[in-house]
Specification:
Elements lengths: L3 H11 L3 H9 L6 E5 L17 H14 L2 H6 L1 H4 L7 H7 L3 H4 L7 H8 L1 E9 L15 E2 L7 E2 L5 H4 L5 H6 L3 E6 L8 H7 L1 H4 L1
Parallel strand pairs: 1-2, 2-5
Antiparallel strand pairs: 3-4
Helix pairs in contact: 2-8
Family: Belongs to the palmitoyl-protein thioesterase family.
Enzyme class: hydrolase
EC number: 3.1.2.2
């Protein structure tokens, strides 16, 4: 049975925004932690409106960029903290108050890297029919190839991985990364699947 501490960490991993940042930035574990589930490389699209396959949705997501990196919006709207514009990466890196920081895209915070690498396993769950996260590959740390918003690349081809800015390359080679996938929409997983695939990492 998972300990209360393990379950707390799992619950924390499902929360949005500052909680994950707080965990990575300030948690100094005395022993390897069992698990964390991350929200990946961010989003560039609206729920149920895939920009890469709809001209209207593509127009809408590009229009949203006009306000997504406004300081007041970044500080007050959690969804804006996850907005990642692959076309104007410089604006994203300079004005994203959460995601660019936590994913080490402005510089390397060694405490983030140290605490993530302290995990026994880093589990990433991709919901194959997800209509909320765009692109879905973000759930496995993939994202759009820089400069456009149609073609995605996997984690292993990203600068984050090749430069090992967050420790993911070292963790991958050590067998600490776990990529899980299941049919279903955003966070639509059964209790049976959860106990079969997640709880074993907490025991």
């Amino acid at each position: 049975m998972a300990s209360s501490g393990c379950l707390w960490l799992l619950a924390l991993a499902f929360l949005l925004g500052s909680c994950t940042s707080l965990a990575l930035g300030h948690l100094d574990p005395p022993a390897p932690l069992p698990l964390v589930i991350w929200h990946g490389m961010g989003v560039f699209g609206l729920p149920r409106c895939p920009g890469e396959s709809s001209h209207i949705c593509d127009f809408i997501r590009k229009t949203l960029n006009a306000g997504a990196y406004n300081k007041a919006i970044q500080e007050r709207l959690v969804q804006a903290e996850y907005w990642h514009d692959p076309i104007r990466e410089d604006i994203y890196r300079n004005h994203s108050i959460f995601l660019a920081d936590i994913n080490q895209e402005r510089g390397v915070n060694e405490s983030y890297k140290k605490n993530l690498m302290a995990l026994k396993k880093f589990v990433m769950v991709k919901f194959l029919n997800d209509t909320i996260v765009d692109p879905v590959d973000s759930e496995w740390f993939g994202f759009y190839r820089s400069g456009q918003a149609k073609e995605t690349i996997p984690l292993q081809e990203s600068t984050l991985y090749t430069q090992d800015r967050l420790g993911l390359k070292a963790m991958d080679k050590a067998g600490q990364l776990v990529f899980l996938a299941l049919e279903g929409d955003h966070l639509q997983l059964s209790e049976e699947w959860f106990y079969a695939h997640i709880i074993p990492f907490l025991e």
